[in-house]
Amino acid sequence: MEKNNLNNLDNNLFNYVDNLLEDLDFKNNSYFSALQDKKFDKEDFIETQIQFYTVAKFFPRFLLELVNKLPDSDLRLNIIENLYEDHCQGVSKDNLNTFLSFLNNLGVSKQDIEKRQLWPETRMFIMSAWGTCALDDKLVAASLLGTIEYMFLYISSTLEDYVLKNNWLSQEHLGYYTCHEKLDKKHAKDFFDLVSKSWEIVEEERYYIKQGINLGAYSLNLLFNELYKYRKQRLYRKITQDHIRINY
């Protein structure tokens, strides 16, 4: 993840994001360090990716919550376009299906996924991001999502390289992470564009933007540390309903 690789963003805003990720030592958290040091067993890696499948499943809902907060139709259309791109312009191989194909290619069936329990660490990340986008200020929500998308530039590249170097899959079978390495740069910029003017002009607004950036960086970094920490556990269930019931 190179510094300042999103064009036309306020340098102070961008430097704040980069400096925060450096302070967190994000690139060297336990998950990515294990990948870089080739100390991640295939079965453990797959187990953590089954958990992340549920994150990918619910991420579009975070975007919809933000759309509801935007007063300007042009701003809403930018985020709706992101959703459309995540669904591959409406064709059957949408964002979630490309992740399912990635897992299928690693030997995991949809039935295998449905048998797994959702770890509390995964639920905590989902509900924190979702709750922020639903209940908090639009500046907090947009900067949180922009930070997550920006961090995912590095995540996609690192995971893709590891899978290829270990000959677990060929390039054409990576699907999800190859797609996101291309899309996340644009999506991160779109979210940060929503807050960049407020960052430049109003100190009070800058505080809320920092809150979103801080939460996005902290929560995603924590999630991957926790996924690695509990990578050996195998938790199963007897039911196949959605992990999260929506009651609002």
Describe the structure.
By secondary structure, the protein is mainly α. It has a single domain (28-229), classed as Heme oxygenase-like (Heme Oxygenase, Chain A), CATH 1.20.910.10. It has 10 helices and no strands. α2 crosses α10 and α4 (73-86) packs antiparallel against α9 (176-201). The longest helix has 28 residues, at 138-165. It starts with 10 loop residues before the first helix and ends in a 19-residue tail after the last helix.
Present the secondary structure layout:
Blueprint: H1 11-24, H2 30-36, H3 42-67, H4 73-86, H5 95-105, H6 110-115, H7 120-135, H8 138-165, H9 176-201, H10 203-229
Helix pairs in contact: 1-10, 2-10, 3-4, 3-5, 3-7, 4-9, 7-8, 7-10, 8-9, 8-10, 9-10
Pfam families: Haem_oxygenas_2
Keywords: Oxidoreductase
Protein name: Pyrroloquinoline quinone (Coenzyme PQQ) biosynthesis protein C
Key phrases:
Pyrroloquinoline quinone (Coenzyme PQQ) biosynthesis protein C, mainly alpha, Heme Oxygenase, Chain A, PqqC-like, Haem_Oase-like_multi-hlx, 10 helices, 248 residues
User: How far apart are the termini?
Assistant: 38 Å
Q: What percent strand?
A: under 5%
Can you tell me the overall shape? Answer: globular
CATH top level label: Mainly Alpha
CATH topology: Heme Oxygenase, Chain A
Total beta strand runs = 0
**The CATH superfamily title:** Heme oxygenase-like
So how many helices?
10
What share of the residues lie within helices? over 70%
> Would you identify the regions where 5 or more consecutive residues have pLDDT less than 50?
none
The CATH architecture would be Up-down Bundle
Mean pLDDT: 88
Helix-strand category: mainly alpha
InterPro entries: Haem_Oase-like_multi-hlx, PqqC-like
Protein name: Pyrroloquinoline quinone (Coenzyme PQQ) biosynthesis protein C
Keywords: Oxidoreductase
GO molecular function: oxidoreductase activity
